[in-house]
């Protein structure tokens, strides 16, 4: 488990493993993920498609479809309570109430046959036991918070009558309806244009500032992470490879994969515009992972040790955890030094 110097933790994930059992073999989608989340902070989770980011988030809420999926190991401690040990009835008091999630695609996450009002009201009626009249008032208030004009009128609208940005705002309204301690945002700006993306991200950040909600922000966009996150968990092939502050991840990366991500960022500096260096190769199949480190076949620092063993996260400096046997040898490498 990655330890933190601060005890103000709202969530601790310890050695989480979530596998999918398919006809082709076992997909180790999440394989030994550990991290903690502090109250009021934004934690970014980054990595290529298929690295296990979304499955990690779904595992926290125990939304993994069984079968074929199964959480085979680990602890998910919410304020000291292990969510994996709760029965479904007890879990419902946390899911959508104390921990909420903004899903990646609002069009498929919203029910097309129910109007927006009913979908928002359902959560506050179940968890807060509000009467219908009070639930309607609360739904209007929530839509106003997320910037939907003519909120009372729009309660009777259906998802297809909203634009992509408005649907995402509705998803946020549903997620914050019960003032959750943790808000998981899984690629909340997917398929939105850049202007709407900025509005949605600012809205989520504003909610965090006003309510002291802890945010888990899952994204491919390193620029978003740099602006909004305080700490970052880098994942590769279902495993955590680096975990530290934003400054360390961006300016003192110690895992070759993180280094590759940083070198893949386009630069506006005219003299360094030709320094873009993409990561070679492709991510491995999660059904047939190589022996040792999963990144070894794409790594320029690979040694014989890397192909036989995969080191766990190790604290190489204060609050900087890296899972690489060459971490001590990788010098500070930034775009400015390239």
Q: Which CATH architecture of the largest domain is right? A: 3-Layer(aba) Sandwich
What is the helix tally? 11
Cα-to-Cα separation, first versus last residue: 34 Å
Spatially, the strands of the biggest sheet line up as: 6-7-8-3-9-10-12-11
How many structural domains? 2
Rg from C-alpha positions? 21 Å
Helix content: 25-40%
Mind telling me the CATH class of the largest domain? Answer: Alpha Beta
* Biggest β-sheet description: 8 strands, mixed
- At the fourth level of CATH, the homologous superfamily of the largest domain is P-loop containing nucleotide triphosphate hydrolases
Q: What is the N-to-C order of secondary-structure elements (H for helix, E for strand)?
A: EEEHEEHEHHHHHEHEHEEHHEE
CATH topology of the largest domain: Rossmann fold
Shape: globular
Mean pLDDT: 86
Strand content: 15-25%
SSE-based structural type: alpha/beta
Total number of strands:
12
pLDDT < 50 runs, ≥5 residues: 1-6, 332-338
């Amino acid at each position: 488990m990655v330890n933190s110097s601060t005890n103000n933790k709202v969530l601790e994930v310890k050695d989480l493993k979530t596998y999918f059992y398919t006809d082709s073999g076992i997909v180790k989608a999440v394989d030994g993920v550990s991290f903690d989340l502090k109250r009021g902070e934004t934690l970014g989770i980054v990595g290529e498609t298929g690295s296990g980011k979304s499955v990690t988030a779904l595992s926290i809420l125990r939304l993994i479809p069984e079968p074929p999926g199964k959480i085979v190991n680990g602890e998910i401690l919410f304020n000291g309570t292990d969510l994996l040990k709760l029965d479904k009835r007890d879990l419902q008091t946390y899911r959508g109430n104390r921990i909420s999630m903004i899903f990646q695609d609002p069009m498929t996450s919203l029910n097309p046959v129910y109007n927006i009002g009913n979908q928002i009201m359902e959560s506050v009626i179940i968890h807060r036991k509000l009467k219908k009249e009070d639930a309607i008032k609360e739904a209007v208030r929530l839509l106003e918070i997320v910037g939907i004009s003519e909120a009372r009128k729009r309660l009777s609208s259906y998802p297809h009558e909203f634009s992509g940005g408005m649907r995402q705002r509705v998803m946020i309204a549903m997620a914050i309806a019960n003032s959750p301690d943790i808000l998981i945002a899984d690629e909340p700006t997917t398929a939105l244009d850049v202007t709407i993306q900025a509005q949605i991200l600012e809205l989520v950040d504003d909610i965090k500032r006003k309510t002291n909600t802890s945010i888990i922000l899952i994204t491919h966009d390193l620029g978003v992470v740099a602006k909004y996150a305080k700490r970052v968990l880098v994942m590769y092939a279902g495993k955590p490879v680096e975990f530290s502050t934003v400054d360390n991840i961006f300016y003192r990366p110690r895992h070759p994969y993180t280094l590759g991500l940083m070198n893949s960022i386009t630069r506006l500096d005219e003299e360094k515009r030709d320094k873009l260096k993409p990561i070679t190769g492709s991510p491995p199949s999660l059904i047939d992972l190589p022996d040792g480190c999963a990144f070894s076949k794409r790594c320029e620092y690979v040694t014989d040790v890397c192909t036989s063993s995969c080191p766990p996260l190790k604290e190489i400096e204060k609050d900087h955890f890296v899972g690489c046997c060459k971490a001590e040898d990788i010098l500070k490498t930034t775009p400015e030094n390239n």
